[in-house]
Write a structure and sequence with these properties.
Elements: E1 2-4, E2 9-11, E3 17-19, E4 22-24, E5 26-33, E6 41-49, E7 59-68, E8 71-76, E9 81-83, E10 86-87, E11 92-94, E12 97-102, E13 106-111, E14 115-120, E15 125-130, E16 139-140, E17 154-155, E18 161-162, H1 165-171, E19 173-174, E20 181-183, H2 206-209, H3 214-224, H4 228-244, E21 265-276, E22 289-290, E23 296-308, E24 313-315, E25 318-320, E26 328-329, E27 335-336, E28 341-342, E29 350-354, E30 360-364, E31 379-383, E32 393-397, E33 415-418, E34 428-431, E35 449-454, E36 461-466, E37 479-485, E38 491-497, E39 500-503, E40 506-509, E41 513-516, E42 519-527, E43 534-539, E44 552-555, E45 560-561, E46 564-565, E47 568-571, E48 577-580, E49 588-591
Antiparallel strand pairs: 1-2, 1-15, 2-3, 4-20, 5-6, 5-16, 5-19, 6-7, 7-8, 8-9, 9-10, 11-12, 12-13, 13-14, 14-15, 17-18, 21-23, 22-23, 24-25, 26-27, 28-29, 29-30, 31-32, 33-34, 35-36, 37-38, 39-40, 41-42, 42-43, 44-47, 45-46, 47-48, 48-49
Helix pairs in contact: 3-4
Length: 593
């Protein structure tokens, strides 16, 4: 037997373990069987990154390709099979090949070239078993010649020999068009992963130690175990060899490499004997020995897998009751009781019936008298689409030549209602639906309008009607009156700021200058942000502070002279007051004290 996993290694027919160190998309030639021209057989393993793994560099089996003469068969990891790009319905037999699928867990292929291939993608395992009657000289590949002694030389593709194991694996690595196979990176090992290797020395495996030396597997396990999956592969490989030697080892547990299987099946580490089925060619994980004279699949070597529980039988990969064996299952998986009849979806011209021993008998349906229906206005008679067996007629709407009446335009809130739904010639009528009338007034009316209700035949309508209130408006100083007429004809007067400055109730044009008390003012281009009127800027005059000889300069606040407020005054030699006033243009004005 040759077995292996795309994650770790391949164990050849001679027991030599080879490590597959490629990552990415890699393909390997496992077995070649020579034959006549175009009559040989070849088995290839295609591996790639695991689909549901967080680690991109973890490798899983993706497919096994079998070249059988001119045909190419592909066993995929989704438990489907394709031959020459055509998907197969399993179980299947053709051209010396027999393929079955067991419970969605394993695919098993028997070839007339003398080997049996099993593919279990869920656990990343495959096995290739050669018949004892097959010769050893006609095989090659990673699995090597069957019967070759351990430690013998490794034969390359060209027939030459080598002792270099990595070079041997590289020579049987096949190039692929849509991927790159690279040397595997050194993984970051899980601390304590190799502890699981101690299971090989446990009492569970002691009965097998005398048949298969455990030291080689233990050393390889401790050497290569980097993750828990590495340990499970090596221990599983040792347990499989033990079963081949007749030693059953039930070594799995909830803590050590547990296997989980769906449905109504139960796990068994070493099942032998026959498993009843309903007469199909279903076989189980093991030898291709089908018991003659009864309807059961038998295994003469212990097999690890999941099996139907007691009281159930295997039927198309499912565990069912014995009564279900009388039921018929069509190609779509539909189940029909005994003597039930039905019309297949893909061929309505047939009527099928479930007979004895799950046989399905289909015959042509008889055609009854078909009467054409009487069509109404805007309808034409035509044959139904898809009436393959007997002609069936129907009335269809004629929207091309039919004179369709116009839909009436409804007013006052009425709605057009179809009075004859489903007919080809539509008839509409205006109908008042009080319950659908809008009772909410508009959000708001303009200032010159007021809300009013207009009564109609159906729905009352709210509207905003004109409400003019003309008035005379006087604008303040600095503003000019502007009148406008709205959509209702109402006159509205608004006050707009003029281009003036307003100081003390007097308007001054922009750019004008004037005197205000003792200040000189000017109307600027600046505007007040609140009133938009222009801003006046005023400044105090520059007074002459130089007094004549004999006078002193004294500031007097609040005194007025000739209508002007001056900031300072002085005294002359006689004691009279003298004002420094802009009106005197620098001359002193004496005022008696």
């Amino acid at each position: 037997m040759c077995m292996g996993s795309s994650i770790n290694h391949v164990v050849r027919f001679d027991g030599l373990a080879l490590r597959l160190d490629g990552e990415g998309v890699c393909s390997y030639t496992l077995l070649t069987v020579s034959g006549g021209i175009g009559e040989g057989s070849e088995v290839k393993l295609h591996s790639g990154p695991c689909q549901n793994s967080a680690n991109y560099y973890q490798v899983c089996m993706k497919a096994i390709e079998v070249i059988h003469g001119p045909h190419k068969l592909l066993l995929k990891d989704d438990m489907t099979a394709v031959i020459d790009r055509e998907e197969l319905s399993l179980p299947w037999r053709f051209a010396g090949l027999e393929l079955v699928r067991y419970r969605g867990v394993m695919l098993q292929l028997k070839s007339d070239h003398g080997y049996v291939l099993t593919f279990t993608p869920r656990s990343n395992e495959f096995t290739i078993t050669r018949h004892s009657s097959s010769t050893a000289e006609d095989t090659a590949g990673l699995c090597g010649p069957c019967g070759e002694e351990k430690g013998s030389v490794l034969f390359l593709c060209n027939g030459s020999s080598t002792s270099d194991q990595p070079g041997f694996v590289s020579d049987w690595t096949v190039a692929v068009d849509d991927g790159v196979c690279l040397p595997k990176r050194r993984a970051v090992c899980v601390l304590g992963a190799a502890m699981g290797c101690k299971a090989l020395r446990s009492q569970v495996f002691e009965p097998c130690h005398d048949h298969i030396p455990v030291q080689v597997f233990l050393a390889k396990c401790e050497e290569q175990a980097c993750e828990e999956s590495d340990v499970c592969e090596l221990v599983s490989a040792y347990a499989r060899l033990c079963r081949q030697r007749g030693v059953c080892v039930d070594w799995r547990s909830t803590d050590l490499c547990p296997l989980r299987f769906p449905g109504s099946m139960v796990y068994d580490a070493c099942r032998t004997g026959c498993v009843e089925d309903c007469g199909s060619i279903q076989t189980l994980l093991g030898d291709w020995l089908v018991a003659s004279g009864n309807e059961s699949a038998c295994m003469d070597t212990p097999t690890e897998s999941c099996f139907c529980a007691k009281g159930t039988v295997l039927h198309h990969g499912q565990c069912v009751s014995a009564e279900a064996c009388s039921q018929c299952v069509d190609q779509h998986g539909h189940v029909y009781p005994y003597m039930q009849s039905w019309v297949p979806d893909e061929n309505p011209c047939l009527i099928c019936m479930c007979l004895d021993q799950q046989n399905i008998n289909c015959t042509a349906r008889p055609c009854n008298d078909v009467r054409a229906p009487v069509c109404g206005p805007c309808e034409i008679l035509r044959e139904k689409r898809g009436s393959q067996c007997c002609p069936e007629y129907e009335c269809a709407c004629d929207l091309v030549t039919c004179d369709l009446p116009e839909v009436p335009r409804c007013e006052d809130g009425q709605a057009a209602v179809l009075k004859n739904p489903g007919e080809c010639q539509p008839i509409h009528k205006c109908v008042c639906k009080k319950g659908e009338c809008s009772l909410e007034p508009p959000a708001a009316c303009a200032a010159h309008r007021q809300l009013s209700v207009k009564k109609t035949k159906c729905c009352n309508v709210f509207e905003c009607v004109c409400n003019c209130q003309n008035s005379t408006h006087t604008c303040p100083v600095g503003f000019i009156a502007s009148s406008s007429t709205n959509d209702c004809g109402c006159t509205d007067t608004t006050c707009l700021p003029d281009k003036v400055c307003v100081v003390g109730g007097v308007a001054h044009p922009v750019g004008s200058e004037w005197e205000e008390v003792c200040q000189k003012c000017r109307c600027t281009q600046l505007q007040d942000k609140d009133t938009s009127l222009h801003i006046a800027q005023c400044a105090l005059p520059v007074c002459d502070r130089n007094c004549p000889q004999g006078s002193t300069y004294t500031p007097l606040k609040g005194e007025v002279h000739n209508g002007h407020l001056c900031g300072v005054k002085g005294r002359d030699a006689r004691g009279h007051a003298v004002w420094a006033n802009p009106q005197t243009r620098g001359r002193d004005v004496a005022v008696s004290s």
